[in-house]
Write a structure and sequence with these properties.
- It is a single chain.
- About 65% of the residues lie in helices and about 5% in strands.
- The chain has about 250 residues and is mainly α.
- Strands 1-2 form a two-stranded antiparallel ribbon.
- A hairpin with a 2-residue loop joins strand 1 and strand 2 (about 185-190).
Amino acid sequence: MGRITDTVKALLIINVIFFIGTLSLGDAAFRLFALWFPKNDNFQIWQIVTHMFMHGNTTHIFFNMFALYMFGSHMEHSIGQKKFLFIYFSAGLGAVAFQLLFTYFQYQPALSEHLAAGIPMENILDLFEKVNNNGSYYSYKIIPADVTAKLIDAYRTPMVGASGAIFGVLAAFAVVYPNLPLYLLFIPVPIKAKYLIGGYFLFDLYSGITGQALLGPSNVAHWAHIGGAVIGFITMWYWKKNSFNQNRWN
């Protein structure tokens, strides 16, 4: 996809440094730099940015960095460094907004059901403290177990990864080069970028709505992918429509 740019190289290096640091620091790194639900005591404002450089395991960082390597430099060559960085980080922030909104709609009804059942907020906070301290929690007999599970999962599940930012880059790529043929690994049939990237977006949308993972593990933050893609698409569509630099579309 062309020569790797200095910007993409720097993003790759920062992600790798964070990953190596995570391997060294373990849970402490996730407590500090992963993005926690704002109601969680682990939440810090800087996590809105730092979570984009955190990854859960080797497979997670490999596929994200591979996608950044394959598409990032090509996009930067096309739209310039400033526009590329704007899409990358605004898509990452869009991913945060979508995922936190989804988490809130999981958290709030479950919390309201506990309070409506007469469980004091102090007891719920004690439940959260136990989860943060040792990962365990108890359920109330008067509350369905799945409701308590939704409350706890929303509270204790951190968000990590560059996927939201990278999905923004992919969506922007599909706007700039909609008919460029792309190849999937092990499938020697070219697929136009707008169909391949658009299809992946639809898979994520289906999984986000139904909760059924069609691609990848079940703990994928599908709404983060969707949020990043939406921001990347809208931004690039607006720029292209208004031809901010017509010479770059040749």
